[in-house]
Amino acid sequence: MLTAYGTWRFEGPLSEEQARTIPAGGFISAVGHEATARWLSELLRLEVPCARVAVELEPGDRALVVRRTGRRLPSGAVLSSILPGDGAWELALLSRLA
After folding, report:
1. How many of the other CB atoms lie within 10 Å of CB of 19?
2. What is the pLDDT of residue 47?
């Protein structure tokens, strides 16, 4: 979900190698589901804490996005039982330009 009005660029899908370059230099985790944080930690080869926080991107900020590509999760589904690595997810880069 976009957090503010502005000019945005959404690029992807990203390869695992491309995704690994994004958090270089530090990052803030806003991953609100433990299973997704574990999956990203393995994929990115660094600790991604589970942190259910709101973030607001400023011009120049970028975000690594985990996007569900498959159908919507069933009502009441628990993400810990649906692994992000199941092929129904992809990685993308969201940049706030202005």
Report:
1. 21
2. 96
